[in-house]
Amino acid sequence: MALDKLNKALAKEADSLQEEGRAKAPERIIVDYIPPQGQKGPRYKLKGANTEFIRMNSNSYLSLSNHPKMIEAADQVSKKFGVGPGAVRFIDGTFQHHAELEERIAMFVDKPAAKIFNSAYTTVLGLALAINNKETYWIGDELNHNCIIRSMRIANVPQDNKAIYKHNDLGELKMYLQSIPDGMNRVVVIFDGIFSMRGDCAPINEIVKLTDPLVPKVKDGVITVVDDSHGIGAYGETGRGTSEFTGAQPDVIIGTFGKALGVNGGFVASSEEVIEAVRQKADTYIYTNPLSVADCAAAIRALEIADSREGRERLQHLHQRTKQFREGIDALGMESIPGPHPVVPLLVRETAKTHKMVNRLYEKGVLVVGLTYPVVPKGDETIRFQINAAHTKADVDCVLDVLSEFRD
Ligand SMILES: Cc1ncc(COP(=O)(O)O)c(C=O)c1O
Question: Cβ(359)–Cβ(402) under 8 Å?
Fold first, then answer.
């Protein structure tokens, strides 16, 4: 009864989203996982469908989620320590597995210290809360992930304390760096490592070249922050991410354990001082339960695997399949954004055709993400494909085969 009026208002708002084409489709539900067999990589079954699907829309780039060693690690610690932490970190919810994962991930990205969070999303929010003050000026890429945009709002960054540069436009970034408003004593340049809808990366080396000379001129310096959620584990020669690929170290690295590393949770790695500020001031770290010990144990094992011979082989296979897919798209005369990352966007540039292709792929057992107007501007309609290390050569050929039906 009390909800009647609110229900009506919310239903009306949902209808408007529907009319504007911005409503989320109902979620598909995975009900079965079929392990790889011979030429076939893993397949998934969805509720209400008989088909076995290839996931070309998963962020699990190294395909570690079903790794027996990770499952065993999660199992073992759960049996001993339980499945939940019982309290937040400050109230004796810190287990040895949290501390160990923090040490391991800091080492992995070559930083002195790290803190883990429930997700990369809450990590970015926490970092902004920890380092922002009234005299902080934020400069970001226009295509930054929603968590960076939201972090500015949550940290109450006023409009005058931020600037947004065109995607990867170093000229515009330089202009903003040269016109930092008076009174700004701390400057943060923040960007995604890999832009998740495009698969291209931030030129961290070039960005650092622009920010470094300004450090002495700003009271608290000019720092670079990368959210490398799609890079960590999947990019660079040993999977260190966009910093390895571009050969430059940003000051702060944020990442997720929930994509290439196949588990869940986020982290921030930087100096001891930045990490202590996070521990003291990041509400999304302080006032919420941490990851379970099972997540931590699985993530520790994922880092070990990523750094082993097996990890290198997975990464190499991922590169080969990505190359195969990208070359296949080129051979079909279709348009993409070049680069070695396993996010491969197919630029269709028409809403109706995008829907038709996504539906056909679904009929043929391929799950992908279609982005159409108004979610993307007219003319930028795209289908995002994501390759992972469990895809076989035959899987990629099978997807290309469906796409060949749409060759002009
Ligand atoms: C750039 C970027 N940052 C953060 C996230 C969120 O990661 P998590 O699922 O760990 O919160 C995503 C995932 O979509 C992402 O693409």
Answer: no
- Output DSSP code: residue 165: E
First to last CA, the chain: 57
Between CA 141 and CA 149 the distance in angstroms is 10
**Hey, which residues are catalytic here?**
196, 230, 259
Pocket test for ligand 1, best of 61, 124, 191, 229 (most atoms within 8 A of CB): 229
pLDDT at 408 over 80: no
Q: What is the pTM of this model?
A: 0.97
Burial class (CB in 10 A: 0-12, 13-18, 19+), 376: middle
Which DSSP letter does residue 212 get?
A: G
pLDDT digits (tens, 9 = 90+) for 228-257: 999 999 999 999 999 999 999 999 999 999
DSSP 297-351: HHHHHHHHHHTSHHHHHHHHHHHHHHHHHHHHHHHTT-EE--SSSSEEEEE---H
Residue whose tokens read 């990505």? 322
> pLDDT band at residue 271, thresholds of 50, 70 and 90?
very high
Instruction: Name which residue sits closest to atom 16 of ligand 1, judged by CA.
Output: 196
Q: Domains in the chain, ordered, with CATH?
A: 20-66+309-404 (3.90.1150.10), 68-306 (3.40.640.10)
